[in-house]
Design a protein that fits this description.
Length: 278
């Protein structure tokens, strides 16, 4: 059975507006930009929960009810939800025991243990995510991506994500990430690596892939909404960093323990930092 995940996102999502912050904008002029790399949740995409996997318990139970109903599974939702959380915890523990400091799960494996039918695993996971963590494109997303592409600047992603994350883009923008101009070699998703941010390994891998294309981290702009998960590890690996402070739901400042190179409150401000010709 195939399920059209982008259509599900499109049909079960409603517009969200970012919750403005009082962050002070800082837009240094960048003389050379080899690539622009983004986080997704809370940066390119508004996340009602603030980030992937951050829904509260009530939202999680409702989401489990929705997911089980979507695939006609008669299991008790509370019991299934407990198994879901325990499954994630166990998978993370096993990965951590293999020496991974910030383990990530492949959510389809967790759902496969909950459901009787392997064929509906993805459908259940998408239904759960749509209910637990409503999402919507950040204002200006399509225009900014298009304009960076028109400058012939490569686009990349380093994000905590699951298989369904990529389906949000055709759902909302009508095009896949590749069609929007993102370089597959410069896209790093936590579920594929079994490791999540704030691991520096993800940014190190990105740096290596840039090097293979004759590009360097020193001239690559990384944009994310979380000082600890995005800015600190990217900075440690030599990237130029921009804190996206456009939505209070997802802005994570902690104790301002690192200083980003730039602070933007709207995606369009990124364009102001880019050189006229790259």
């Amino acid at each position: 059975m195939s399920h059209d995940h982008p259509s599900y996102f499109a049909n079960h999502s409603r517009p969200l507006d970012p919750d403005p912050t009082d962050s002070e904008i800082r837009l240094p002029q960048l003389e050379k930009v080899d690539a622009v790399v983004f986080d997704i949740y809370g940066t390119l995409i508004i996340s009602a929960a603030g980030d992937i996997s951050l829904a509260d318990e009530n939202a999680s139970l409702h989401a489990m009810e929705t997911a089980l109903a979507a695939v006609d599974c008669k299991r008790d939702p509370a019991e299934a939800l407990q198994e879901y959380h325990e499954g994630i915890g166990l998978a993370q523990k096993e990965t951590r025991e293999r020496g991974v400091e910030f383990p990530e799960v492949e959510i389809r494996e967790i759902w496969a243990d909950i459901l009787e039918d392997d064929l509906v695993v993805e459908q259940a996971a998408v239904a759960y995510e749509c209910a637990a963590n409503p999402v919507w494109p950040m204002p200006g997303l399509a225009e900014v991506i298009k304009e960076i592409g028109q400058k012939n600047i490569p686009l990349g992603i380093v994000s905590n994500a699951q298989f369904y994350t990529q389906h949000m883009f055709p759902a909302f923008l009508g095009s896949t990430l590749e069609e929007l101009g993102f370089d597959p070699e410069l896209m790093i998703f936590s579920y594929q690596e079994r490791e999540g941010k704030p691991s520096r390994n993800l940014y190190r891998k990105l740096s290596d892939r840039l090097t293979q294309q004759g590009l360097v981290a020193d001239h690559t702009l990384y944009v994310g909404n979380d000082l600890r998960k995005d800015i600190a590890p990217a900075q440690a690996e030599g990237f130029v960093t921009a804190l996206f402070a456009g939505d209070a739901r997802s802005l994570r400042l902690y104790n301002n323990e690192v200083e980003p190179d730039a602070v933007v409150t709207e995606l369009g401000q990124i364009l102001e930092m880019l050189p006229s010709h790259s």
